[in-house]
């Protein structure tokens, strides 16, 4: 990343979500050829329904981070470019060879380390950070090292020793050089602090996630109504892309069909939708940076008995996972609930046909901590959000995945969108 991209607020960055990197997908979707189909043209723009996160809310997040640091013995946590930077500051920043970082100390005000020639541009963005114009900025020239400034900023807050947590997406070279320049500090993983804050969603965050999922589902339904056998999957994806534009939010959706639906993240090979074949669509939009992730599986025509049996099994597994997602249960228990249903139906054991975990955390990243997977004993808490996405994938035949996102309550998971009822009426209520 060159300096012209430093602190970029490009729409692409706003739209990006980590799960898109999991598949071999194009960076942009082709436009729809000709006029928009009626189902897509009729979609309302819902942009006005999204209320941005406030500076006051970011202040509460910083206070929560300091509370967690005090309990866990951290002197501070460092954030470089990435989602956690946006979460705490509202600033979108890339990472380059020039370190730009936001450091939250366990006590006192947060501060920034910034290249000197970027200071004026940085000050233009201080109104999104709690404390605003009072935020300390430590600058460095091109022939100087920024890494010792992390220790100086902490020392100025009275913190000369202790653990400095490094946010997980921070380049290794930053962490390595900070450790060399500050021998009194112990460089450690900052995930317990950053994920410790981000994994519990506030009502405002749940509202944004609800809207993102509602919009994504309406986009899928509109594209399903406009799609037909004979259409290639790239054109179907283009329908969904146009529908996101109509709805007012950036989004991306993939489409796989036939034997390629048995590949959980699809194929780069050209595909044409055929009558009576499985079609599998995935991904979603973002609303004020909060991501949706939905999968729907359907058939134009008449599904085979085997397709219907697989769909019904996955549907039951998704419901079982939702019901197991109760506050107080372990993350792994949710995966087990879904996997047990699939195994009992003859599609097991283990990862034989259900080849991935049942869910991932979701929020400002499409995939984030924690994960619903065997071995994860993290205790579910009210306000956590996850995908619920069991699947059965039969090589060289077809695959079925049903995915909705949910938030955790003491009674179980509450889906943001209703389960899909059938292969032929995937959006009926």
Automatic annotation (TrEMBL):
Species lineage: Bacteria, Pseudomonadati, Acidobacteriota, Terriglobia, Terriglobales
Name this protein carries in UniProt: Xaa-Pro dipeptidase
Organism of derivation: Terriglobus roseus
Keywords carried by this UniProt record: Signal
Region forming the signal peptide: 1-23
Residues annotated as domain Peptidase M24: 209-409
Entry-linked SUPFAM superfamilies: Creatinase/aminopeptidase, Creatinase/prolidase N-terminal domain
Domain Creatinase N-terminal, chain residue ranges per copy: 61-200
One Pfam family this sequence matches: Peptidase_M24
């Amino acid at each position: 990343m060159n300096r012209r991209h430093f602190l970029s607020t490009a729409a692409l960055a706003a739209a990006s979500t980590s799960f898109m990197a999991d598949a071999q997908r194009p960076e942009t979707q082709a436009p729809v050829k000709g006029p928009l189909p009626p189902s897509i043209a009729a979609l309302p723009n819902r942009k006005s329904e999204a209320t941005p996160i406030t500076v006051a809310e970011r202040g509460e997040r910083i206070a929560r981070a300091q509370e967690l640091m005090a309990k866990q013995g951290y002197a501070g946590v460092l954030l470089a470019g990435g989602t956690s930077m946006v979460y705490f500051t509202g600033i979108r920043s890339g990472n380059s060879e020039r370190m730009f970082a936001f450091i939250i100390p366990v006590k006192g005000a947060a501060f920034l380390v910034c290249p000197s020639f970027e200071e004026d541009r940085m000050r233009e963005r201080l109104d999104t950070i709690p404390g605003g114009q009072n935020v300390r900025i430590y600058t460095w020239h091109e022939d100087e090292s920024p890494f010792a400034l992390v220790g100086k900023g902490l020392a100025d807050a009275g913190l000369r020793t202790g653990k400095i947590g490094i946010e997980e997406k921070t380049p290794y070279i930053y962490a390595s050089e900070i450790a060399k320049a500050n021998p009194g500090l112990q460089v450690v993983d900052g995930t317990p602090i950053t994920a410790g804050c981000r994994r519990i969603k506030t009502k405002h965050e749940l509202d944004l996630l609800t809207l993102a999922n509602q919009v994504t589902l309406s986009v899928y339904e509109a594209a399903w109504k406009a799609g037909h056998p004979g259409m290639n999957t790239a054109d179907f994806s283009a329908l969904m892309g146009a529908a996101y534009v109509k709805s007012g939010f950036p989004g991306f959706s993939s489409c796989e069909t036939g034997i390629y639906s048995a590949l959980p993240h699809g194929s780069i090979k050209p595909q044409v939708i055929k009558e009576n074949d499985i079609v599998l669509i995935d991904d979603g939009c973002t609303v004020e940076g909060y991501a949706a992730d939905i999968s729907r599986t359907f058939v134009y025509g008449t599904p085979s008995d085997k397709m219907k049996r697989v769909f019904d099994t996955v549907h039951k597994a998704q419901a079982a996972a939702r019901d197991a997602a109760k506050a107080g249960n372990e993350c792994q228990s949710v995966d087990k609930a879904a996997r047990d249903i699939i195994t009992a139906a003859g599609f097991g054991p283990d990862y034989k046909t259900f080849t991935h975990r049942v869910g991932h955390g979701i929020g400002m990243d499409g995939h984030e901590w924690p994960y619903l997977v065997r071995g994860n004993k993290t205790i579910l808490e009210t306000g956590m959000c996850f995908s619920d996405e069991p699947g059965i994938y039969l090589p060289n035949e077809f695959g079925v995945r049903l995915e909705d996102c949910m938030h955790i309550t003491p009674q179980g998971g509450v889906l943001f969108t209703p389960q899909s009822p059938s292969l032929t009426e995937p959006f009926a209520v």
